[in-house]
Design a protein that fits this description.
Blueprint (H helix, E strand, L loop, with lengths): L9 E6 L15 H17 L3 H6 L3 E12 L8 E11 L3 E10 L2 E14 L10 H11 L2
Antiparallel strand pairs: 1-3, 2-5, 3-4, 4-5
Length: about 140
């Protein structure tokens, strides 16, 4: 099966549910991290990788090491948002992403998230597997 190329800036739709909002009726700030996590998971899936399969073979996990966010405007119940992912930096054992949550052309939240590649059994840092790197390189050439 041929996979469609992954664009340099990947995006996925996110619907705001009632459970995502706080007492003021706006998205609770911590939920933007969840939206960004969903986007990174969908990005990885678009590359052809499922996280549970990566944990089994080649035995790696990705864990958030740092997250820096700026909250610009509120999202509200039932808004249709878009969460984006783009690689800003690629290290031997880490990836740094630029991410945004938008409503149409409005940026509501933006930030930078760095994930580390870890051995699934020991949680020790390890190099990003070549199979993942090769798909990242193929995506960068599209």
């Amino acid at each position: 099966m041929t996979r469609p190329p992954v664009p340099p800036v990947f995006s996925t739709p996110i619907r705001v549910y009632y459970e995502d909002t706080d007492a003021g009726g706006v998205v609770y700030y911590a939920n933007y991290l969840k939206f960004m996590e969903r986007a990174r998971s969908e990005w990885l899936r678009r590359l052809g990788f499922e996280q549970d399969e990566l944990a089994r073979d080649p035995g790696v996990l990705f864990a958030v090491r740092t997250a820096k966010l700026e909250f610009l405007k509120p999202a509200r119940f039932n808004d249709l948002l878009e969460a984006t992912v783009e690689i800003r930096e690629r290290g031997r054992v880490s990836l740094t992403f630029g991410q945004r949550v938008r409503r149409g052309d409005e940026v509501l939240c933006e930030g930078e998230v760095r994930v580390a590649c870890l051995e699934a059994k020991s949680f020790a840092p390890c190099p990003i597997p070549p199979t993942i790197l090769s798909r990242l390189d193929a995506g960068a050439q599209t």
